[in-house]
Amino acid sequence: MPDTHEDDIALRVRAIESLLIEKGLVQPAALAAIVETYETKIGPHNGAQVVARAWTDPAFKARLLSDATAAIAEMGFSGVQGEDMVVVENTPAVHNMVVCTLCSCYPWPTLGLPPNWYKSAPYRARAVIDPRGVLNEFGVDLPPDKEVRVWDSNAELRYLVLPERPPGTEGMDAAALAALVTRDAMIGTGTVAAGQGAAQ
Amino acid sequence: MPALPVEQVDGLIATGASARMPDTVPPRFRPGDRVTVRNINPLSHTRLPRYARGKAGTVEADRGVFCFNDTNAHGLGHKPQHVYGVRFAARDLWGEQAAVRDALYLDLFEDYLEPHGG
């Protein structure tokens, strides 16, 4: 069965796009360059490198947690929708997850564009009131005594979760660790396991 | 408004446009302060979620001074002000169904807040 909702959106986007081009408000080449950038260059593989470096470089991790914008800029992942960043750290006692209840605020330079579910009304409505239920549906089961912190990021700050480094990865270097880090782990709807990945 | 030329795309994406403004406005609140979110219900643009209105929380961080969306969105000026990271106990928002230790964090413009009990 065709997804009529998605089809409607695609049609509407195409209609708006051709109107904007017709009126000279958008250059097709500029639009193509933006789409290409977020399809091929900017995505969760950037955030995965930030996480892997934080796991292997304690001084970087300290800078990341005290001034995330500057620390992430060191790695070259600055720009639109990452102008003012906060990194929150998962620990054995605390699990963080990120949502934007009012729209779809998301850290583009480190994670790329948000997945559809992040923008969906059910995720936005339920993440704040029932984070443990939502996490359970993502396959994340937390012990009752672990504190869940939901970051509803709808002002000017953008959030990246620093996941817990999985056991059994002690001998791995940053490149190998980055391959384990998933997008969902950096939103906080997932965790990182030693035998899986990766953020593409 | 001129169309964005293709040769400016990379620079724009890499630079962005922070809404942060010069820190010349004194903060009304400090980390540790108890605050109550004002029960305001604007019909126009706001970054204040409805579920937090009237609720009490604790200022955890001063994020600095930012352009105020609620006025700027309507051409009514930047109204620069501090934005605070405020922690709410999940039970203060959702009642007994929430886990006792869980919390919700919101970045809130100063105009949304008043001193708790004040």
Describe the fold and architecture.
- The complex is a heterodimer of chains A (200) and B (118).
- Chain A is mainly alpha-helical.
- Chain A is 48% helix and 11% strand.
- Chain A folds into two domains: 4-39, no CATH class; 43-187, Nitrile Hydratase, Chain A (Alpha-Beta Complex).
- The mean pLDDT of chain A is 94.
- Chain B has a single domain, classed as SH3 type barrels, CATH 2.30.30.50.
- Chain B contains three helices and five strands.
- The radius of gyration of chain B is 17 Å and the shape is elongated.
- The A-B interface holds A 24-27, 29-30, 32-34, 37, 42, 78-84, 86, 101-102, 109, 128-129, 131-132, 144-157 and B 1, 3-6, 8-10, 12-20, 47, 49, 51, 63-64, 66, 69, 83, 85, 90, 93-94, 98-99, 101-109.
- β3 of chain A pairs parallel with β4 of chain B.
Give a quick set of tags describing it.
A: 200 residues; Nitrile Hydratase, Chain A; 4 strands; 11% strand; B: 118 residues; alpha+beta; 3 helices; 29% strand; elongated
The geometry of chain B reads as elongated
- Name the helicity range of chain A: 40-55%
Strand content of chain A: 5-15%
Q: What is the number of strand segments of chain B?
A: 5
Query: What about the largest sheet of chain A?
Result: 2 strands, parallel
Number of strands of chain A: 4
Quaternary structure? heterodimer
Distance between the termini of chain B: 46 Å
Mind telling me the C-alpha Rg of chain B? Answer: 17 Å
Spatial sequence of strands, sheet with the most strands of chain A? 1-4
CATH superfamily of the largest domain in chain A: Nitrile hydratase alpha /Thiocyanate hydrolase gamma
Number of separate helices of chain A: 11
Number of helices of chain B: 3
The helix-and-strand class of chain B reads alpha+beta
Counting structural domains of chain A, the number is 2
Fraction in beta strands of chain B: 25-35%
Q: Give the helices and strands of chain B as they follow along the chain.
A: HEEHEHEE
Low-pLDDT segments of chain A? none
Named at the architecture level, the CATH assignment of the largest domain in chain A is: Alpha-Beta Complex
Gyration radius from CA atoms of chain A, angstroms: 18 Å
